[in-house]
């Protein structure tokens, strides 16, 4: 693990670098290279070849997204194009983008500038969740420094490329991280998801072609330009390129962020985080945050990338590995998630608005030993009607039902015991 | 008329980017920054300053969880109740904070010093159980029921 392109230059205390310091550490090498040596199409091809997948959870190839944006924008004719940076990290268990924005703002700015050049955007808007005020402040300062140094603004480094960049501070709501809701939020509309198609690449912010990328995705871009697609692919242990910023939390000795080769196993990550806390045994883990299915000890060696975790019946999501030990009750754990998703539903469609509070109440009652006959069937009904294969307007409901679906499958006996008023694993 | 000229001109300035509608959230945040929360009168004045209707701006004010439509205490404590915090003993911290302050989630102490709000997930899972405290949303954690001083300082 010698190569850490994302976090290798972060300070131990996470304070951001000034522009001068960042340049001393080798920052802003990639942007001049991109502008002076490569065409936008060549950048897109390079990022596609590097196998960089979107780190916001969906895992779509970033280069392909950029290519689709260029194709969509070509149809729209001349006019503004936008790049929106998704810094609305609100998925339960996920805390990686916080570090990247707070401690390494210039890395993100450089990556966003290169991405904007590649897709032909002239304005970048970085949407940061309200709870990350230090991150928003670090980015605002860094943007001003980059502008003053001619790394942003008009005719960047004599290339003829103009780019403005600004921070849009949000005000707290999970749904703002959904691509189309994020666009609505910046426009000042009530941030609820929009119907697709048209996709943002064709009609996004202000009806213009728009690309939305996650903070971690863009933070990886400068290293790809500097060292090439093969180098980036080579960092990974699997076919999906690069390193991944995994967040390990829950019942481990030392919860922490770990940048490791893509495809590192949960077993290794848990060991790096000090192992299971208090010498306990593993009950289960969610590999990618609140909206991913549970896995158990038998799956500890699955490479943590998009393809392998999907094959194992879960997903990489944001790479937020939440660990449950053998005293952590899955009914209570799923209940915490359900409460979060119920609270954060935007209320646009009925399955989510009405279904999630119902699920949350059922789980609370079960946890408290006050469940009633038929409750488990009711939970299963929600999974079947509105779960991962069900129908609701956006993915929030499906994501919310994912841990419940796998919980009912894997821990049916524990749910049944709760119906009898007993918790076989919980602390209570 | 309660908004200061400085707040009003900042609201007008915010509209430079994408027009009045796109500036509505900025306006709400500017009002909250100046007044601590967003009253009906301030909301109406912000709307008039931007040339939008109070209903339009309220549709955002009531959507975003960090825009406060009722008074809050001097210090707002956003206590994370996400799974990672729960697994690290978040419930015990929650109970201790509630007992010490004598309030529940969404409530303000009678002396107006503290407001307690539950939130998830604050992105502090490596410092669980964690909270965000005060106007800068300073991240504190890992919290135990015994070290509440970090969270509520000199509260009774």
From TrEMBL, chain A:
Which species is listed as the source?
Answer: Rhodopseudomonas palustris
Q: What is the protein named?
A: NADH dehydrogenase
Provide the alphabetized UniProt keywords: 4Fe-4S, Iron, Iron-sulfur, Metal-binding, Oxidoreductase
Q: What function does the entry list?
A: NDH-1 shuttles electrons from NADH, via FMN and iron-sulfur (Fe-S) centers, to quinones in the respiratory chain. The immediate electron acceptor for the enzyme in this species is believed to be ubiquinone. Couples the redox reaction to proton translocation (for every two electrons transferred, four hydrogen ions are translocated across the cytoplasmic membrane), and thus conserves the redox energy in a proton gradient.
Q: Provide the cofactor list for this protein.
A: [4Fe-4S] cluster; FMN
Matching InterPro entries: NADH-UbQ_OxRdtase_51kDa_CS (IPR001949), Nuo51_FMN-bd (IPR011538), Nuo51_FMN-bd_sf (IPR037225), Nuop51_4Fe4S-bd (IPR019575), Nuop51_4Fe4S-bd_sf (IPR037207), Soluble_ligand-bd (IPR019554)
- Domain NADH-ubiquinone oxidoreductase 51kDa subunit iron-sulphur binding, chain residue ranges per copy: 331-376
Q: What's a Gene Ontology MF term here?
A: metal ion binding
Which family does the record assign?
Belongs to the complex I 51 kDa subunit family.
Q: What is its EC number?
A: 1.6.99.5
UniProt superkingdom: Bacteria
Automatic annotation (TrEMBL), chain B:
- Residues the entry annotates as binding [2Fe-2S] cluster: 80, 85, 121, 125
Q: Name the domain of life.
A: Bacteria
Q: What is this protein called?
A: NADH dehydrogenase
Q: Which UniProt keywords apply?
A: 2Fe-2S, Iron, Iron-sulfur, Metal-binding
Q: Which cofactor does it need?
A: [2Fe-2S] cluster
* Cofactor binding: number and manner: Binds 1 [2Fe-2S] cluster.
Task: Family membership, please give it.
Answer: Belongs to the complex I 24 kDa subunit family.
A Pfam family of the record is 2Fe-2S_thioredx
Give GO MF terms, alphabetically: 2 iron, 2 sulfur cluster binding; metal ion binding; NADH dehydrogenase activity
């Amino acid at each position: 693990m010698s190569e850490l392109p994302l976090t290798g230059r972060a300070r131990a205390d996470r304070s951001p670098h000034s522009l001068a310091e960042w340049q001393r550490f080798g920052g802003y090498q990639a942007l001049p290279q991109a502008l002076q040596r490569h065409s936008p199409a060549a950048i897109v091809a390079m990022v596609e070849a590097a196998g960089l997948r979107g780190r916001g959870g969906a895992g779509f190839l970033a280069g392909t997204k950029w290519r689709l944006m260029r194709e969509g924008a070509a149809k729209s004719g001349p006019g503004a194009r936008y790049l929106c940076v998704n810094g609305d990290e609100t998925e339960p268990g996920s805390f990686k983008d916080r570090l990247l924005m707070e401690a390494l703002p210039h890395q993100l700015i450089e990556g966003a500038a290169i991405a904007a050049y590649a897709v032909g955007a002239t304005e970048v808007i970085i949407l940061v969740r309200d709870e990350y005020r230090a991150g928003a402040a670090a980015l605002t300062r860094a943007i001003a420094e980059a502008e003053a140094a001619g790394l942003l603004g008009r005719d960047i480094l004599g290339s003829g490329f103009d780019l403005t960049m600004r921070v849009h501070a949000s005000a707290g709501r999970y749904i703002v991280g959904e691509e189309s809701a994020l666009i609505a939020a910046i426009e000042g509309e009530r941030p609820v998801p929009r119907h697709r198609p048209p996709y943002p690449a064709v009609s996004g912010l202000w009806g213009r072609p728009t690309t939305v990328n996650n903070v971690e995705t863009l933070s990886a871009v400068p290293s790809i330009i500097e060292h090439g697609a093969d180098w980036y692919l080579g960092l990974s242990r699997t076919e999906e390129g690069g390193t991944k910023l995994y967040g390990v939390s829950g019942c481990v000795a030392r919860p922490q962020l770990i940048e490791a080769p893509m495809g590192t196993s949960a077993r290794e990550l848990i060991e790096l985080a000090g192992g299971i806390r208090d010498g306990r045994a593993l009950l289960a883990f969610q590999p990618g945050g609140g909206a991913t299915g549970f896995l158990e000890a038998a799956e500890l060696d699955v490479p943590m990338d998009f393809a392998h975790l999907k094959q194992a019946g879960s997903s990489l999501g944001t790479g937020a590995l939440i660990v449950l030990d053998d005293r952590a009750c899955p009914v209570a754990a799923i209940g915490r998630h359900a409460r979060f998703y119920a609270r954060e539903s935007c209320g646009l469609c009925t399955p989510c608005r009405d279904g999630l509070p119902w699920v949350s109440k059922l789980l609370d009652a079960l946890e408290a030993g006050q469940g009633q006959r038929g409750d488990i069937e009711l939970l299963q009904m929600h999974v079947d009607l509105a779960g991962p294969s069900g129908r609701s307007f956006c993915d929030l409901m499906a994501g919310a039902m994912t841990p419940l679906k796998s919980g009912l499958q894997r821990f049916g006996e524990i749910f049944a015991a709760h119906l009898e008023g007993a918790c076989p694993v919980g602390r209570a | 008329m309660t908004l200061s000229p400085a707040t009003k001109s900042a609201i007008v300035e915010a509209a430079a980017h994408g027009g009045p509608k796109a500036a509505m959230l900025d306006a709400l945040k500017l009002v909250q920054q100046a007044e601590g929360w967003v009253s009906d009168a301030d909301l109406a004045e912000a709307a008039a300053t931007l040339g939008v209707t109070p209903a339009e701006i309220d549709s955002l004010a009531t959507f975003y969880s960090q825009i406060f439509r009722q008074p809050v205490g001097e210090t707002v404590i956003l206590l994370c109740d996400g799974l990672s915090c729960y697994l690290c003993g978040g419930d015990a911290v929650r109970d201790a904070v509630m007992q010490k302050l004598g309030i529940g989630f969404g409530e303000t102490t009678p002396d107006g010093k503290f407001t307690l709000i539950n939130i998830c997930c604050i992105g502090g899972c490596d410092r669980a159980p964690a909270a965000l405290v005060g106007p800068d949303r300073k991240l504190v954690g890992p919290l135990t029921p015994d070290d509440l001083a970090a969270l509520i300082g000199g509260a009774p």
